[in-house]
User: Fold this.
Amino acid sequence: MNELRKDLIHGRWIEVLSESKSPSEYLLETVKRSTETTCVLCQGREKETPKEIASIRRTGTAPNTPGWWVRAIPSFKPLFQVEGNLDRRAVGIYDRMNNIGANEILIESPEHNIKPEDMGLDQMIRVIKLYKDRVGDLSKDLRLRYIFIFKNSIIDPCRESFSHPVSFLIATPVIPKNIKDELDYAKQYYDYKERCIFCDIIREELKVGERIILETRNFLCFCPYASSFPFESWIIPKRHNCDFHAISGEEVEDMGLAIMNILQRLKAVFKTEPPFNYFLHTAPNRVPRRGQWHTLGDDYHWHLEIIPRLIVKSGFELGSGLFIQTTMPEKAAKYLREV
Amino acid sequence: MNELRKDLIHGRWIEVLSESKSPSEYLLETVKRSTETTCVLCQGREKETPKEIASIRRTGTAPNTPGWWVRAIPSFKPLFQVEGNLDRRAVGIYDRMNNIGANEILIESPEHNIKPEDMGLDQMIRVIKLYKDRVGDLSKDLRLRYIFIFKNSIIDPCRESFSHPVSFLIATPVIPKNIKDELDYAKQYYDYKERCIFCDIIREELKVGERIILETRNFLCFCPYASSFPFESWIIPKRHNCDFHAISGEEVEDMGLAIMNILQRLKAVFKTEPPFNYFLHTAPNRVPRRGQWHTLGDDYHWHLEIIPRLIVKSGFELGSGLFIQTTMPEKAAKYLREV
Assistant:
């Protein structure tokens, strides 16, 4: 019998099918791979991109020249723009504001064809340090409410995308809906239990064990009990902290290992590179002022969500918001753990 | 400059791009059309389907024989099942229950190749009456919290789908997330303003006019100010009522005209049949007991949402819940109004 499971963190129910699909039963979307071996984001073509905002580079090399390991540049087609003011106002009974924010490309390597799971720990650490650096910098802008970092492994026809290894940063003057739901439901739980829901989940998962993929010194990697997508995996720090920017040096290293490890496991389980997204979930900006989140971070816990794009959601799921989970999280975790 | 608009009914912000895409700029997904001209849902093959639950048929014809105009049967592959008990319980810190509910196929016509917009008003009225009949019947089952009726015009590889004209009904023991959001935010508005947000929207749209596609005696058809999908259109009754089942005979007829009219307009604007879903949003079951929705329906207003499937949401949109609107609702309404 299929079962309904409650996703406590988003306040929604998920239907988990009892007949779990195995990895080979997913028809992987044809990944549109570019055949190019160099592009405008490669080392040596720095003059062809918008001017770099930040980089980690060899001592003595100048910005916008070769010598960098990782590099942040403005988006070529930004969804949000830095200049201007919010101009919040009513339009009849409705509300609007300008799209003030930031939209950056975080170039993960000077090499065109390297994959995150193959770039080596030193390089992965630089990528995470660049994430941290950009979050730290943008969190000073009081117009911004949220800084969202994510990776899209595929050439996405709808949005800006590159065959070069990149992550993206989008900073917004509002808190995106999914994050707002997480904050609201985590706060509801905290108000009731006076415990962080994510810390409770970590304890529960460690006790039960069957949804764990990997445990490192500082992180737990697991398939959530009521996830929305098959083989969805979370990487969460064991140490309570609402804010990704407070990650320690040791945690950066450990997180790098965890990301590479999970991506390698996904590749092994699917016997190919499944297309995936990952999303960094952290507390909103301006924590001391966040108003309704008065607990100042006791009720939220940053983490990374890795979502292989194995399926397209059906009309019913998109319309109702009731998602169907086609692979039981315990089975997905078993595949990923034992591969 | 792009702008952010607040979707008051779902508590989320939408980015509306200033460079609106015109209808011809959408690459319509190739609609997988079956070449078959008859199927198990056609008249004459009643014995090959699960036994009918309800039908509207010629006087003197027996159930499960020819003579019907519309017919409800159980799904061949139900996501929810009628038999059993909910068995709600904790699993560690989590919550689960059984998938008790209903999953029905609402066959819209005995004819295999007819389209909703071409079936004629009499037949469309029967389809809406069948919706009403099924909602009325299932709302007596106290285990069920929500009855969701929707249409999926395309052969959906993920779910049960047919080349025969059908709608689907899924009844669930929980309120699906998107509906719960609507109920919560509509209640929040009602608590603050002591007015139905949907009634306010109807008044605002009638005043402004630029997002209206069509106005009939009983219904308003418009493109919402902060919709998530391009060319998304709503059909909403002018008379306040939370419950679709309370639709009057005159409203049934008028709603049929409105649905056919909007679908014809979409076809004309896109110069082909765009794939679409529509979703009937109504109040949850057991209204007198709904507890947190204590206003007994003053704060909710049933309606139909028509969503052409012109785009696939990007990784950023799915991960953040911040949707990008690629055609300004005012422009979409203009195309649909003037075609």
About this structure: DSSP finds six helices and 15 strands in chain A.
